[in-house]
Amino acid sequence: MQPRNMSMSGVVDLAAVKAAQEAKAKAEQARAEAARRGDTGAVSPAELVLDVDEAGFERDVLQRSTEVPVVIDFWAEWCEPCKQLSPVLERLAVEYNGRFLLAKVDVDANQMLMQQFGIQGIPAVFAVVAGQALPLFQGAAGEQQIRETLDQLVQVAEQRFGLTGLTVDPDAVPGERPADAEVPAGPYDAMLEAAVRALDSGDLGGAVTAYKNVLSEDPGNPEAKLGLAQAELLRRVQGLDAQKVRQEAAEKPGDVAAQIAAADLDLVGGHVEDAFGRLTDTVRRTAGEDRNSARLRLLELFEVVGAEDPRVTGARRALARALF
After folding, report:
1. Which residues form the Thioredoxin domain (predicted)?
2. Is 169 a member of any domain?
């Protein structure tokens, strides 16, 4: 497992967006299945802090990260700053009452994990959310800084990934959680998997067709809608000369097609606000078919980023002001 950095404030990572949607769907399915079984899924406070090794990393960190953010504390017995930091993290894990899990990794016993995360020194603290790894901080940190970082982490996990954390029951007995039931496969899982394979292999046309096939049967399928928006965006920017497109957009502010192409590149490059602002301005200063073309592309880009992203919420308000 090679960790990836996931920005919590700026860049749109299309893979992370896809992971967010998948994590939300899995979390909703798991909650629905638990409710059907009458299982609250509650854990004891003692289960909020785990000792994790290489053998159990996939189970205890990667799999659990689809239901709750997992904070990883890389430490060692000989590390004095670790002895100051670790108790603070353990106390906060209990205080946050299931909003995150704390996984403690002894680097002396788990050298491979240390190398995979690219850790040069300890203490080092990472998080994994929906299988996406991101660094939180390294070295000594004050409790206020730690709290601010954790607050941001749990907010992003809930807003972008639908991870609301675990239910904690002080009377629960550690280790007595019911065995997880298999979530039944959805009716379009095979078709969606084929679309993902096409997308991952660079067959953007095939991915677009596969996602459209799903939507023809299930128009509201969220994974297909997101996948189609991503595939169409990537197909539009494929082969574009970015420098030429940006130069043309700068020289021809009234050219709607040039602004739309530049907005696509803005989004793929992670400049979300620039993409939204460019198209909103285009809507504001155009009329008729030109205005409608810019408006529709902006709505498509909203689909890529996700309706729950605060940048989309703000851009929708700006679009409404531009239109009315």
Report:
1. 21-155
2. no
